[in-house]
Amino acid sequence: MTDDLWVRRFHPAPQAPARLLCLPHAGGSASYFFPVSRALTPGVEVLAVQYPGRQDRRQEPGIDSIEALADEVTKAVRPWLDRPVTLFGHSMGASLAFEVARRLEAEGIRPTGLFASGRRAPSRPRDERTHLLDDDRLIVDVRKLAGTDSALLEDEDVLRMVLPAIRTDYKAAETYRYTPGPPLSCPVIALTGDADPKATVDEVKSWDEHTTGSFELKVFPGGHFFLNAVVPEILRMISAHIDGHLAGTA
């Protein structure tokens, strides 16, 4: 189900006591989280963000700044904040989720938690310039990470549609720089693969610097898209986190 341009609610759950807001990786789309929505409904209502420049928004120009994206996403999710909301972001989506959480807390809205998956802490930048590569080398990098179905990349027409969005997202992720400010107060749960070339365990561990709330680090076997192999375990973690919050506020 499409509620608006930005927020997708595939399985409406009007009686769910809490929501999970999912933010995709670079080149990803809201539909990546369709299985998550199906699995967690009806106990949790899942919302997935659709960035401009892909799928049904492919005619719109992409946004190549995490800060600008965070401003737009924060505006878009305000109508959905009448229930407790937990944020989940993978890779670029984790940086974006962090910036959205900062904006919400600045407005006095405290998320129940932030799941930061497959991403270095904001305070641990790297000098990355993949977004400046030519098309062929950019495709090689995307295939190496296994973030986009390689079968899609073999289709020339599909490739031409998705490559601009991938490049825009890579630029947003690679040029993002943390602006120092108050840490979050909500819990942060950092998830990573032990062989992720984009985020070492040490870089991910630094997420604990960005919250005064509780911090948990969970390391899984695998690379940048480790989560595809451990979906049931991650869903259990999310459900347990949300259930714990609801029990604590009952």
UniProtKB/TrEMBL annotation:
Pfam families: Thioesterase. Gene3D superfamilies: alpha/beta hydrolase. Residues 21-246 form the Thioesterase TesA-like domain. The keyword Hydrolase applies. Keywords: Hydrolase. Signal peptide: none annotated. This is Surfactin synthase thioesterase subunit. It comes from Crossiella cryophila.
